[in-house]
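pasting LPS-assembly protein LptD for the record, 680 residues
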Amino acid sequence: MKAARALGLLAYLVTAPHLAQAASDVGVSLEADTLKIDVPTDSYQASGRVRMERAGVSLLADSVIYHRLTGDAEARGNIFLQKASDTLKGDRISLNLKTETGELINGELFVKSSNFRMRGERVQKTGEEDYRVERGSFTTCDGDLPSWHFEARDLKVTLDDFATARDAVFYVGKVPVLYTPYLLFPVNKERQSGLLLPRIGHSTKKGFYYIQPYYWAPTPSQDVTFDLDIESSRGVGMGWDYRYLRRGGSEGTLQGFGIYDTAAERFRGELNQRHLELLTPSVTLASDIHLITDRSYYRDFSEDTGDYNRQLLQSNVSFDKRWERYALSGEFRYVEDLVASNNNATLQNLPALSFTAAGNRLAGPLYFAMDSSLVNFQRIEGTTGQRLTLSPRLTLYQKPAGLMDLSVYGGYRQQFYNLYGAGAPGALQQSGQAEAGSTLSLPLARVYDGRYRHLMIPGLEYSYLQEPHGLGFTPFDRLDQIPGHSSLVWSVSNLVTEKIVKEGGAAEYRDLLYLKLSQGYWFTGERLNLLNLDQADLGHRLNDLMIEGKYLPTRELTIAGDGRYNTVDNDISTANLAAELHDGVGPTAKLAALGYRYSRSELSYLEGRFSLPVTSQISASVLGRYSFDKGDFLESRYSLEYKRQCWGIVATYTNRPDNKSFTVNFTLSGVGGLVPVRAF
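structre below
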């Protein structure tokens, strides 16, 4: 058969050489069991397993009539048209291969990138990537009876873009459940504009609420999500989340929410702005702004852990310039105390400048370093002023016997103050402290079975800091009241690394265990109370025994912790333990996490997060935050997700001491997902 079809086409091209060149220009290949050529009409008539290709578009059918000069093709029976991974199926098609326009009878369009499927009695191909269907349907579900689909009076689709539907009805199975006069639906997994699925719920503070998001991606490098928030107990609000990315890595976000709170009878809201500007590889500008209308806003409207119980709100604008051994930075920082009755006594840095010179070699192993800063402290009530800090240091590095690492340093920390306001002593003030010290360490390493390497580093560190003098006013911060001391600290650090040889001989190294023990002794000075840095721990010369470690038995499991044990009082001062289990996909895909924090007489707190697959389609997650010192849960959250091939539903119940909420989220494959923005 193949010989017959090839000979037929060859005979036509030989007898009409002028047409053979034209056929080559068109770039069409045609194969069939039977091939006839109609010279007067300049057309091919093919039947039986017909395959036609042109410019990456292939057409399979039972029979095809192709008009070479016009590019028109008429195909019947088992139509299968494919371009890249996208396909068209149907009973009959009329198509112009040059313009890629035509009409398909009883057709189905399939876009593989998003599993998008569109069906209709008459599918019109109006352009290279454009389709139109009257009284058609679409879904992202597999099967002849999809779990959900939309039916629309008029449906237009642009590949790699979106579908628009008018008079659309949403079906669950065969049951109609929702009508919308207009609908935008993304056709692939790229960023597309359109309505996202709503979030519905009820809470103690908001009452019944309905949140309808709309996603808009005007360019590949920016997008914004608008949220219409309807709350029965609070009113109607509007939120937005704008993201952008610029060439060179500069990026930022602008988020906000505003509502006229009918319960409080006033406007309430927040504004958050973040930006990172990379002016040059060594110069950056950054801003992180957070503004709220009132101090109780987060308690009434925030749903995120860490926000609704926030105690401080900080905003800053900063710049940073780096050289090989120098760095210059500046910052405007404004802090709002959400716990105090007002913000009048809160200290602000407006601005703070710092210059650092690190590791400049003077001669041989002698190095010079310099830390300096200038801070302008401002507040409404209390002492204000400026502080200039100069802290030069000389360091000598040696390697005794070629085995140990030794460093000896000496320096001076000088501070100048210009004070005014309530409590200011007047005139210029100054305070200085001499400092000196030395560190000695001995790295020891051994390899076991050619696979495990154990690195142990015992070390000693001596430090001396002169008692401060000349400070005759209430300090601004802890940098103004560092107590003088003379102390010695011993430490032992351990690191175990595993060598994994892959196929082909390539080696990969993975840290398995890190463990460090340390303890200090104060010969002179008042040792700070580690549980309250504003107080001295009188009568104790021996510091707490400190331990910190991290254990990674597998790539999926991480166990970490640190703690301080008071050997004088024979009691635990602090303890922090955490364990995380990942699914191996990424660091944010946590299956379980458990953390405990303890601070003697101050805090005893446990937090756990667990995600459990109940079945292949059902998963459950639980979050709990319990305070042992308060004897109650700070927060508990329970979620249940049911997920099918093309849709899902998530129900969440959250219980906090002052608010209880229940939320239902719906997800449809292809709707509601945001992806990272791309640079221009």
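The first strand starts at residue 28 and ends at 31.
The CA atoms of residues 521 and 542 lie 5 Å apart.
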